[in-house]
């Protein structure tokens, strides 16, 4: 289980800033509202990003739809998902979804699950800004969502996949009609390069035919995740701060730690390269003699 992050110092600074700026409006406050379509299968669409109700991809046991979950609880559940990423010689855990992705998915998935029929799933594609090896970069996430046996299932197609409008080798624009950003499917494991770092209430789906875990399919026990989140919130003893603000503080602290680790790794690589360059320089000088 991931350790709980204490926010006391950062919270004090944020609260002071909020009070000091109250007269001219609080720039730290941001809207969590995302406009969701009142009817139809497409719940959200913006460029390549979308959330839509679709027919399930293969026949099988009916989904537990319609299913009721508030957007706040959905945000908590989605915000609990972290991934393990390799950065040079080390591994780090980062939030799967960016704040912007959480805004989109918490509202649309809550509405979609309440609107979906037993033979329907919800597909999504989102683009988020995440910390890369050296700098922040756009990355794409996609998945298929449904409720089965009372648990939230997400089959990922893409997890923190580097996104680009152009081919890095040719410089030509990528035609997304030919190279779409696909969600996951029950049929086959998408085998994402980035894996989910499981926490309490989260597990990989086990294929009953093979007995093997699917690397792209996670099953989430919603009550367990919500209970763990409530316990951590109670332990923080900072109830005056909104969940959104606490989430931002946690993400910023995590990104700072990740950046420090990245810099340490880069220094290690540069030091190693410097030694090799010195050795090569000495070899060249001996050859000249």
TrEMBL record:
Keywords: Coiled coil
Coiled-coil stretches noted in the UniProt entry, renumbered to this chain: 249-283
Protein's name according to its UniProt entry: Uncharacterized protein
Source species: marine sediment metagenome
Phylogenetic placement of the source organism: unclassified sequences, metagenomes, ecological metagenomes
């Amino acid at each position: 289980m991931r350790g709980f992050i204490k926010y006391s110092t950062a919270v004090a600074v944020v609260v002071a800033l909020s009070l000091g700026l109250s007269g001219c409006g609080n720039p730290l406050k941001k809207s969590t509202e995302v406009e969701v379509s009142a009817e139809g299968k497409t719940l959200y669409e913006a460029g390549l990003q979308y959330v839509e109700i679709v027919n399930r991809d293969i026949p099988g046991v009916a989904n537990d739809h319609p299913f009721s979950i508030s957007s706040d609880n959905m945000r908590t559940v989605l915000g609990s998902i972290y991934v393990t990423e390799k950065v040079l010689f080390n591994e780090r855990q980062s939030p799967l979804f960016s704040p912007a992705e959480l805004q989109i998915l918490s509202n649309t998935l809550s509405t979609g699950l309440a609107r979906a029929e037993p033979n329907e799933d919800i597909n999504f594609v989102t683009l988020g800004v995440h910390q890369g090896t050296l700098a922040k970069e756009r990355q794409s996430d996609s998945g298929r969502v449904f409720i089965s046996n009372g648990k939230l299932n997400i089959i990922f197609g893409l997890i923190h996949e580097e996104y680009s409008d152009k081919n890095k080798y040719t410089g030509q624009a990528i035609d997304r009609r030919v190279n779409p950003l696909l969600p996951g499917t029950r049929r086959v494991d998408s085998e994402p390069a980035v894996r989910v770092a499981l926490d309490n209430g989260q597990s990989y789906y086990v294929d009953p035919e093979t007995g093997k875990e699917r690397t792209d399919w996670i099953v989430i026990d919603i009550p367990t995740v919500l209970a763990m989140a409530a316990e951590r919130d109670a332990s923080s003893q900072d109830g005056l701060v909104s969940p959104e603000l606490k989430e931002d503080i946690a993400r910023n602290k995590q990104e700072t730690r990740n950046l420090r680790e990245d810099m340490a790794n880069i220094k290690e690589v540069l030091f190693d390269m410097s030694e090799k360059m010195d050795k090569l320089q000495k070899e060249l000088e001996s050859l000249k003699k």
